[in-house]
Amino acid sequence: MTLFQNKYRVESNRLRGYDYSSIGAYFITICTIGRGHFFGEIFDAEMVLNPLGKYTHQCWTDIPQHFPFVTIDEFVVMPNHVHGIIIITEETNNHSSRTMANPDAITKETNNEETNDHSSLQSSTSLSFPMSLPSPSPVPFRSPSKTVGSIVRGFKIGVTKWARQNSNIHDIWQPNYHDRIIKNERALNTIRNYIRNNPRKWRDE
């Protein structure tokens, strides 16, 4: 599997103290269990999706229908992983005045959930980038249904449910996922190009 700037990994890397319901762009990687080729294969530098791969592609495309505050940007379904950029475009306004004494609590929502083309960011969308990433500190409580973790969890559950009903595959995903907060336009474009070129640079590991 290809690397992105030698930092490709699947273990959790939630940034302590960061509000993952914040407006902004996030680069997400979700891998299959055992790196199984569940979604198709690469032929002549192009991803050829099988039925489960096509459904996985559709599930990612449908994310904004389930999370209206989200826009999807570049993404690709590969044989054993999915890369995608999601954009939270508006504040969810679903929080209380209390704060979490332990900011690590925000990281616990995405542990063991199971149940080749792209959509581009609309030109009318105003995308903001964080000026700086926070130091560990209490953060305002946000509903876990409005965070990056809940978006990924919903996507994974949808794909797993379809696979169990329509194939002999019972478990699809590795626990957790990898995310990267996209800090600026340059990083956004670099990641877009990486995702577009993923099938061409594919090597199975």
Description of the structure:
The protein has 205 residues and is α+β, with helices and mostly antiparallel strands. The protein is built from four helices and eight strands. The relative contact order is 0.27. Strands 4-5-1-8 form a four-stranded antiparallel sheet. A two-stranded antiparallel sheet has the order 2-3. Helix 1 (51-61) runs antiparallel to helix 3.
Biggest sheet details: 4 strands, antiparallel
Number of helices: 4
Q: In what order do the strands lie side by side in the largest sheet?
A: 4-5-1-8
- Please tell me how large the radius of gyration is: 17 Å
- Quote the beta fraction: 15-25%
Instruction: Please count the beta strands (DSSP E, at least 2 residues each).
Output: 8
**Proportion of residues in helical segments:** 10-25%
Low-pLDDT ranges? 6-12, 93-125, 131-143
**Averaged pLDDT:** 75
Give the SSE string: EEEHHEEEEHEH
- Could you tell me how far the N terminus lies from the C terminus, measured between alpha carbons in angstroms? 5 Å
Structural class: alpha+beta
Overall body shape: globular
